[in-house]
Amino acid sequence: MVQLFSTVRYCFYSRLHEFSITQSILAIALEKANSAEARRISRINIVIGELSGIVDDCVQFYFDFINKGTIAEQAKLSFHHPPTRLRCRDCGTVFTPHKLDWTCPSCHESKVEIVSGRECYVESIEVE
Amino acid sequence: MGVKVLTISEDILGANKEIAKRNQSCFDKHGILSINVMSSPGAGKTSLIRQTISRLAGKARIAVIEGDVASSIDAEEIHKYGVAVVQINTAGGCHLDANMVSKALDNLSLDKIDLLLIENVGNLICPAEFALGEHRRVVLFSLPEGDDKPYKYPLMFMQADVLLLNKVDLLPYLEFNMKAFHKAVTGLNSDVAIFQVSCKTGQGLEDWFSWLQEQLRETKSRHNA
User: Fold this and answer.
1) CA B37 from chain center: how many Å?
2) In chain A, what are the domains?
3) Which of B121, B177, B187, B207 has the fewest C-beta atoms under 10 angstroms from its C-beta?
4) Residues 6+ apart with CB under 8 A from B69
């Protein structure tokens, strides 16, 4: 008899998606610092686009919690947020949308693709 | 010792994407078509899956992964239809990630599945960011949510292969501007297939089933090639 029903439970897992994102940030920074044989990490420079839906304060909150006992314990997090930039698929104009209005300012069509604003990466770390 | 800057430029979601790739290879190896079903809570994901199971009974072997913050209500419901189902409880997590799906696959007999429907956690934001290894992304959107949502949650609509506009039977009772909604969605995503459906009355669902069966045929011929 094939078992048809099973449950996988995650306890104390991510409360918000920022938790798993913060874990990744720390893992990436520690790996790079360790391979450079750094003594400590003083800063982590993170690039998170406006559209990525990741909240700085939330990342900071989790970071302060999970960095204990690591060489990133004193590290400052520095966030850079590239603004949303869109390209009109009709006339090619690249523009920054005003709030929820994604209409092209040149031809007034709303056929767009995202040029920037979805970034989500660790740019660099500063180590000693 | 002075401060040194080490350039990294590494994708924060890179680890998830790697696992997602492995999941997809696993699906491909077994000839499984995997579909990530995403929507707000209450848009009708479970109803859609129920309807799909009933309609494709005997035509495709279906398995379901249910993602919910807590409870196994959905899995119990789907289980009544006699298909293999794995419930993932994210314990507060607002989306499924590739690792959770990978773990869930351990509980399924992959050789006996043609179609894997992955019901994501009800949320229009985070699931758009986390690839699971799915072949196709289906966004279910219900009329009561309002026609302005594509502008508020653009990523979700941009990445959809299919948009099922559910609860169309409620149209006479709502101030939902269908033309404005279509304009917003196709503006963000010119390739998306849009089907107007009602999972309650069955209206329009044949278009969805046809699309799905076409995808299943393609998957099968790729696998047998």
Assistant:
1) 2
2) 17-127 (3.30.2320.80)
3) B177
4) B89, B90, B91, B92, B93, B94, B121
Residue B130, helix vs strand vs coil: coil
> Which pair of tokens denotes residue A60?
């900071």
Q: Which residue has the higher pLDDT, B91 or B202?
A: B202
Name the percent of chain B lying above pLDDT 70. Answer: 100
Domains for chain B: give ranges and CATH numbers. 17-224 (3.40.50.300)
CB A88 within 8 A of CB A95: yes
Q: Which residues contact B160 (CB under 8 A, 6 or more apart)?
A: B38, B137, B138, B139, B189, B192
Smallest Cβ distance to A53: which of B125, B183, B190? B125
How far is the alpha carbon of A110 from chain B, nearest alpha carbon, in Å?
A: 5
Q: Tokens standing for A109?
A: 């069509």
Interface test with B, best of A2, A10, A59, A112 (most B CBs within 10 A): A10
Q: Hey, what amino acid is at B77?
A: E
The pTM assigned to this predicted structure is 0.90
Which of A20, A37, A80 to probe by mutation at the B interface, max B CB count within 10 Å?
A20
Q: Check: CB of residue A77 under 8 Å from CB of residue A44.
A: yes
Question: Is the pLDDT reported for residue A15 higher than 70?
Answer: no
Q: Count CA within 13 A, CB hemisphere, residue B8.
A: 31
